[in-house]
């Protein structure tokens, strides 16, 4: 490996000179304008690093037929984007992918032009594989972050069910090879880190929260005027939004509960048809994709966030809802129990069970004003441990080859409104 960027002699350390800015190359198989957790994290990470004075380059598939390198503005910060020629993956409603057979050539070309101090890839599938191979050849420090579960892509592969376990096994082996080239491997939660270690044989995977800009979200302490259940995310199969719609039919009429689904995806039409079949179409709103400001408004008008997904490695949406002081009812699966503390800032329900989801939603919606506000305050308390400042501090240390302790995720006190 190359010498640690920014390393200093003892005498220099005594003078406490600031460490020089880094040139960072981030690789992602999905990046803005894609709307998903991995893309949002990569965008926020890149913008946050630029704001701290680093020179940030992002390698990602082109969002259209136009490819090349140019400046892009994300989260108010300018990065240099290297957009690779991409093809649309038609089983998916928006996914585009860089060409696998050209990824090593493209990675070598970009690395040699940028000359980064560190390469940080966000996925092992195509871009991360190419960048890690070429960075390793050149002795450049590599950091890898996993946001991906192979099971999430099965519905888009068109593989027969009998072949799916075999395909998942191959995907984990590929992940092990690519992440094995990295000096440091991270994933958003301890549960996800343990999962990655189990399936790849990797050791010492860091659990580092994706983090959010909590100051961009604010609580709404006004008394509720309706019972509005909110879901935000990709409208795809693994999110199990159908479980939420079925749960709505089990709530008492006296609650007059409504569901708002924010996001787009390949299951939107099927879910609209299901709402008609269940007789709840007049109580379910599909808003599609929205702006950041419109999303904050959705959090404000909601009574509770429902997250029925069974494949969340963290869930940025859940963190945004918590920063907006929303109670959360989430599936007791994967990493969601790291965010939802049962009986405090919401409830966990048995995955795939409309009956249990309805029961937990009813508990929140029928809570007294004092109990409801206590859940809201608990969400604010628990989200303080996920501020993106901690995330950026930790990644900066990894980029410089410094030892890190995974960020503390204990709760921090929050002051209730008068």
Automatic annotation (TrEMBL):
Keyword Secreted on entry: no
Glycosyl transferase family domain ranges (all copies): 223-375
Chain ranges of the Glycosyltransferase subfamily 4-like N-terminal domain: 35-214
GO molecular function terms listed in the Swiss-Prot or TrEMBL record: glycosyltransferase activity
Signal peptide: none
UniProt keyword Glycosyltransferase present: yes
Any GO BP: carbohydrate derivative biosynthetic process
InterPro entries recorded: Glyco_trans_1 (IPR001296), Glyco_trans_4-like_N (IPR028098), Glycosyltransferase_grp1 (IPR050194)
SUPFAM superfamilies: UDP-Glycosyltransferase/glycogen phosphorylase (SSF53756)
PANTHER family for this protein: SULFOQUINOVOSYL TRANSFERASE SQD2 (PTHR45947:SF3)
The protein's name: D-inositol 3-phosphate glycosyltransferase
Species name: Agromyces aureus
């Amino acid at each position: 490996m190359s010498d640690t960027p920014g390393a200093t002699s003892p005498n220099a350390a005594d003078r406490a000179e600031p460490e020089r800015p880094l040139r960072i190359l981030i690789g992602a198989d999905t990046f803005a304008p894609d709307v998903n957790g991995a893309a949002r994290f990569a965008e926020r990470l890149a913008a946050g690093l630029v704001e701290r004075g680093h020179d940030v380059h992002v390698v990602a598939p082109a969002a259209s037929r136009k490819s090349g390198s140019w400046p892009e503005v994300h989260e108010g910060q300018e990065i240099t984007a290297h957009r690779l020629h991409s093809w649309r993956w038609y089983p998916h409603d928006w996914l585009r992918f860089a060409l696998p057979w050209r990824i090593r050539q493209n990675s070598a070309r970009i690395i040699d032009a940028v000359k980064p101090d560190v390469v940080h890839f966000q996925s092992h599938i195509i871009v991360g594989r190419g960048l890690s191979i070429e960075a390793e050849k050149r002795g450049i420090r590599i950091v890898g972050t996993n946001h991906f579960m192979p099971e999430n892509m099965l519905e888009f592969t068109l593989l027969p069910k009998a072949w799916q376990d075999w395909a998942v096994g191959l995907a984990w082996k590929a992940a092990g090879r690519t992440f094995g080239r990295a000096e440091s491997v991270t994933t958003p939660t301890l549960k996800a880190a343990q999962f990655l270690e189990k399936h790849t044989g990797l050791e010492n995977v860091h659990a580092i929260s994706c983090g959010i800009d909590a100051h961009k979200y604010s609580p709404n302490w006004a008394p509720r005027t309706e019972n509005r259940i909110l879901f935000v995310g990709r409208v795809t199969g693994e999110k199990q939004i159908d479980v939420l719609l079925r749960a709505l039919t089990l709530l008492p009429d006296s609650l007059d509960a409504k569901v708002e689904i924010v996001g787009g995806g390949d299951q939107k039409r099927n879910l609209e048809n299901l709402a008609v079949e269940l007789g709840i179409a007049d109580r379910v709103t599909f808003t599609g994709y929205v702006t950041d400001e419109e999303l904050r408004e959705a959090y404000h008008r909601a009574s509770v966030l429902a997250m029925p997904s069974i494949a969340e490695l963290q869930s940025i949406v859940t963190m945004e809802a918590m920063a907006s002081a929303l109670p959360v009812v989430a599936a007791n699966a994967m990493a969601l129990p790291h965010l939802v503390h049962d009986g405090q800032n919401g409830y966990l329900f048995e995955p795939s069970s409309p009956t249990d989801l309805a029961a937990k939603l009813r508990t929140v919606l029928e809570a007294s004003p004092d109990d409801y506000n206590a859940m809201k305050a608990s969400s604010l308390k628990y989200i303080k441990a996920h501020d993106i400042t901690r995330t950026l501090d930790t990644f900066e240390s990894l980029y410089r080859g410094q030892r890190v302790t995974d960020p503390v995720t204990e709760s921090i006190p929050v002051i209730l409104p008068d």
